[in-house]
Structure to design on (489 residues):
């Protein structure tokens, strides 16, 4: 018999999340929310929201009804239709941080604009790293018109990766072709709703505003049955209260307003309680995602989300450093462990540097090891059936431990084995092996993995359908050929 107790991390006393929800409801009743989308405004008014000074005041009744219809679990499936991310409870999954506009060049270790080649390499790499349960549209390539950037990065992710995708729209006309791509892979709209292949980030603007674009994305996701992921972004002292708890209250109010809009569009539609808050550095005017206070807000709002019975998401396991150095490891590793101990269901951030502006393939490989360590810590310590006193007595009498049946039976469950990226050699062996740094080892691992012959993930018919959709979108904006020259296979 094997038993284990899972360690858990919380920022608030057990009774505090409900107090935060009550305060957030008072904010929505007294301050309200600015909704710039006409359809969203009509939904709120038809449901009984009053309008004062152009803002919609949401009664607590609306909030509680929306929470009552929102599901407590979202399951994302891979391109083959197999479950890949079971978002709910304390189950933890990692995916790369998304929407970076730069990549850290492998040769110069300086950032540059991302290209189609970079996006393909990242998608392939994520597919080969098992501790990433999902991929994301992590890079925005600069070699296509900006008008098609949202759908092109999804196209590349689906063509070159097999895992579910965390994505989002940049334009109101982006959702339809992106839905069509997902539907082409899954085999129809109903099949896509039954086995979601992607989750769409939907971001309110702090404080307490839904833009025309982000509200429309929220409504479109609900009606298509594609999971939406709320990404509230309070910025302490700049766009939210400077107190961490106050930022969590504002995050809750913004997220609850999104849940109301979403559930009014389609009750029971899947939604994830997420975010990307940040402490504000008053000295430099920057948004440090690797700050301890940022991580505390994330863990705190995730506790509120769990109290509400919703799947949770957070931006952690990332860094503000400019390269994969000590700071990057400190901030990313700390965030990964805190996220895993908090039981955050979907953790976005690995690979990210420079305030979510830059992705690094080398850091993505290094962060993969941090995620492995975090997941191991979160599993806790198990009793492996035997009475410890009797076992130790037997082992001491025997005089050695390595060949004992208990050791051979359980060591792989107890002791994780890192990849070659992590150095556990003696100093002499390390020198003999070339005295390579962590960055050296990560660079070699990236090239080793990407040297493999890529395997086609999609049937030829689905791949051809994707290309037709994407080519049509590109031609709308003056682009005759796609930079992605992969065959339709």
């Amino acid at each position: 018999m094997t038993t284990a107790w899972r360690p858990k991390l919380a920022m608030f006393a057990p009774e505090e999340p409900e107090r935060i929800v009550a305060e957030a409801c008072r904010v929505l009743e007294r301050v309200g929310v600015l909704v710039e989308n006409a359809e969203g405004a009509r939904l709120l008014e038809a449901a009984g929201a009053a309008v004062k000074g152009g803002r919609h005041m949401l009664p607590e009744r609306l909030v509680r009804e929306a929470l009552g219809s929102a599901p407590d679990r979202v399951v994302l499936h891979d391109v083959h239709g197999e479950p890949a991310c079971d978002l709910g409870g304390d189950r933890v999954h990692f995916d790369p941080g998304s929407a970076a506009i730069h990549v850290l060049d492998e040769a110069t270790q300086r950032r540059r604009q991302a290209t189609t080649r970079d996006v393909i390499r990242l998608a392939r790499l994520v597919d080969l790293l098992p501790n990433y349960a999902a991929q994301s549209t992590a890079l925005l390539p600069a070699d296509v018109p900006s008008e098609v950037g949202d759908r092109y990065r999804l196209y590349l992710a689906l063509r070159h990766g097999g895992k579910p995708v965390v994505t989002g729209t940049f334009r109101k006309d982006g959702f339809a072709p992106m839905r069509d791509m997902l539907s082409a892979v899954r085999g129809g709209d109903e099949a896509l709703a039954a086995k979601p292949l992607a989750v769409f980030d939907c971001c309110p603007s702090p404080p307490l505003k839904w833009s025309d674009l982000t509200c429309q994305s929220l409504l479109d996701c609900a009606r298509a049955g594609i999971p939406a992921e709320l990404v509230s972004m309070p910025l302490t002292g700049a766009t939210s209260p400077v107190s961490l708890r106050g930022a969590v209250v504002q995050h809750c109010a913004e997220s609850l307003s999104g849940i109301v809009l979403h559930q009014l569009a389609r009750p029971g539609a899947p939604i994830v309680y997420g975010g990307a808050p940040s402490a504000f550095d008053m000295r430099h005017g920057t948004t440090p995602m690797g700050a301890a206070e940022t991580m505390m807000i994330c863990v705190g709002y995730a506790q509120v989300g769990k109290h509400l019975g919703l799947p949770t998401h957070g931006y952690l396991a990332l860094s503000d450093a400019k390269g994969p150095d000590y700071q990057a490891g400190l901030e990313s590793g700390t965030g990964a462990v805190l996220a895993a101990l908090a039981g955050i269901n979907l953790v976005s951030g690995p690979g990210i540097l420079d305030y979510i502006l830059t992705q690094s393939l080398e850091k993505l490989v290094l962060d993969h090891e941090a995620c492995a360590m975090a997941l191991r810590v979160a599993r806790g310590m198990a009793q492996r059936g035997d009475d410890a006193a009797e076992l130790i007595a037997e082992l001491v009498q025997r005089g050695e431990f390595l060949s004992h049946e208990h050791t051979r039976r359980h060591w792989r469950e107890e002791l994780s084995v890192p990849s070659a990226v992590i150095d556990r050699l003696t100093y002499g062996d390390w020198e003999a092996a070339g005295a390579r740094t962590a960055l050296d080892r990560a660079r070699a691992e990236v090239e080793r993995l990407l040297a493999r012959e890529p395997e086609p993930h999609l049937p030829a018919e689905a791949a051809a359908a994707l290309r037709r959709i994407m080519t049509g979108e590109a031609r709308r904006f003056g682009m005759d050929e796609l930079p992605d020259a992969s065959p339709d296979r």
Notes: The CA atoms of residues 199 and 227 lie 5 Å apart. The radius of gyration is 23 Å. The chain has a mean pLDDT of 95. The chain is about 45% helix and 15% strand.
